[in-house]
Amino acid sequence: MKNKPHNSKGTVLISGGTGVVGQSCTIKLAQLGYDIAFTWCSSKKKAIVLENKIISIGRNCISLAYRKIYNRVLIKLFLQINFNVK
User: Fold this and answer.
1) Is 65 helix (H, G, I), strand (E, B) or coil?
2) What gap in Å lies between CA 1 and CA 52, rounded to an integer?
3) I need a labelling partner for 54 at 20 to 30 A (CA). Which of 24, 25, 64, 75 fits?
């Protein structure tokens, strides 16, 4: 993921971002000006496609493979995401 300097309304974490509802929410929130962090479980290809859509909207995006992280550390990872690189 490449960080782009821009005005962001904040960062949103979406669990299950590659599902039908998750994709809709992810795209809408990116269009509204939010940077996106989302988890995915079974399809890395879908995650890459969604990441590229979000980046094409002009927002920063990171996807996390859910099977590789534990619930208790998910928030800790989210808090470490810094899209506002100077």
Assistant:
1) strand
2) 10
3) 75
